[in-house]
């Protein structure tokens, strides 16, 4: 039973992370929480049903499961919303629209091959140097000395 709950939470959180800051990410979290609320409701109905058919009126003791499920539902939903609200990291050299890596393409392209958005990748990949120029000599600095 435990692997189901761990796996369920990880699936909801992974989907929320995959579609961060989009409606699809928030809908994934909402559907995940709705599924857990359905399980909570089923526990309540099972308890009432078992009490109604038991001649002594005791039925199944599932209050422990409910005490565990309510915080679990809050944890999955709260952390899922937090993950869905996180910003999408911007990577230099990737398409700004879909995130497709453009730096490894053999020829310069004007459009992203994945989504078709206008994109211009750097010829040598992203530049992390202050001057922005490709480095041909590795013995010195790329910053010009002050006079």
Describe the overall structure:
This protein has three helices and no strands. The chain has two domains: 2-85; 91-130, no CATH class. It is elongated and about 90 Å long. The chain has helices at 2-18, 23-53, 63-85.
Low-confidence residue ranges:
none
Computed structural class: mainly alpha
Please report the distance between the alpha carbons of the first and last residues.
72 Å
Classify the helix fraction into a percent range. Answer: 40-55%
SSE sequence, one letter per element: HHH
Radius of gyration: 27 Å
Main beta sheet, described? none
Characteristics of this structure?
single chain; 147 residues; mainly alpha; 3 helices; 48% helix; elongated
Provide a compact summary of the structure.
The protein is built from 3 helices and no strands.
Fold blueprint:
Elements: H1 2-18, H2 23-53, H3 63-85
């Amino acid at each position: 039973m435990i692997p189901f709950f761990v796996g369920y939470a990880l699936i909801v959180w992974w989907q929320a992370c995959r579609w961060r800051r989009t409606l699809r990410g928030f809908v994934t979290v909402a559907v995940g929480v709705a599924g857990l609320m359905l399980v909570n409701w089923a526990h309540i109905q099972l308890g009432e049903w078992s009490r109604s058919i038991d001649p002594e009126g005791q039925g199944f003791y599932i209050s422990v499961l409910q005490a565990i499920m309510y915080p679990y539902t809050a944890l999955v939903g709260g952390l899922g919303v937090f993950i869905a609200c996180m910003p999408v990291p911007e990577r230099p050299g990737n398409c700004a629209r879909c995130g497709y890596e453009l730096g490894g393409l053999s020829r310069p392209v004007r459009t992203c091959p994945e989504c078709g958005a206008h994109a211009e990748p750097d010829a040598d990949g992203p530049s992390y140097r202050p001057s922005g120029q490709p480095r041909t000599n590795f013995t010195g600095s790329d910053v010009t000395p002050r006079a």
